[in-house]
């Protein structure tokens, strides 16, 4: 026992005493609840709050939950505060750094479930903590940080991020000043279902792109195409709707040139005449809802498909029948487009799904939720290997799962990171006892909660759902499923697509006729297309490629007596 005490004493004497601390104060007018994100960077530009990301670790950050903070009361960051990529302030090398903090302000939401939660509301910016209107922050300052210093460094968040009203990020402002207003309409739609769930007025934004000749053909009724994507302040389906040609010869303007080409094709009769909509569904957990009903995010599937779309079709003369609707999207929108078709099989007549988020939880990015016991490492008898999360198309790993989870933990606890792992958990999980999403993966240890996985399997594993329900679902999906993904997908999302194809290849009565296209070596956001074009070129003409295919299928499957003529002028 005596030798053990000697060893402990020696260790305590030899261990450095990390005393550096940073105190952050906010001269607010009222108590604040939210989450402090302190960012430390070596580069001068852009501002540190704009440098933070989970790959290439270009900045260091620390996060602190704060409840009922009194004005000018300090928030403390010290060696016990969890950070990313370095875990602790004690792990930083002494030196001069650019330091900036943002306080992500939370609000109370009194849910219909009876729970009261503190969450970051979307303020029209699409859930970006570093530019959310109303969030306090400071001008970057140069500080000398030395983990062994006993000096206390101080920051004051004396600025507030400005509102977006009347700017080029304000959809209402864009709609009022856009020369495309003849074709492009913006609707701020209050959802009764979402408002009831969240205990406050909740809105969907929707851009409606009307076909050429809409006004001059008042008796025409049109098919509806739903484009699925992340939050954008303006119309982006899948390229901007640009009414004037951009300057030629500049490579960085290629996307704008594609937008102008889309405008020309849309208004010249070269594309079938349909109504094309893009729905904004930013919410307290993310910039997008995933367009399904969720225990935590709310009934977005019902709100969009049972409230919003019927209202749009009534207002803008949609045909309003399942044979005359289709959907497409990539990444988050890819998952949404497939889930929309699967969960509403009679309401839609086709999905064109690109690079979808995990559609089979055997491949939750690079984690098998069903067989892995830990999401961060795979262990053998004599060691362990980190599980990769992000990669380059050549296979070079640029982030691991453990690091990316800690990155999001720094942005917000209880699943409030408003980032990728957080929204998947919010959408797919049941609510936990505290009202926040039940954790599927412990964000600091990587341990997997198998009871939560079982819930995910039954409710949101799209492969498992199609296998389970194929006798009734299969006949309704014939001719409707079209998937593309790059086999060098940045987030390993191709693995889940392959698993779905394998599962569908075993179906009978009917045997699935789903189509799959894989891009050898192609990264995330591969949308298929002719091999003679680059991935970017195929992306930029994606709408021009898939809308004619959608309409061709609609016409082939239209029921007897359906309106297949009034909109084909």
From TrEMBL:
Residues 1-19 form the signal peptide. SUPFAM superfamilies: alpha/beta-Hydrolases. Pfam families: Esterase. The keyword Signal applies. Keywords: Signal. InterPro entries: AB_hydrolase_fold (IPR029058), Esterase-like (IPR000801), Mycobacterial_A85_antigen (IPR050583). It comes from Edaphobacter dinghuensis. It comes from the Bacteria. This is Esterase.
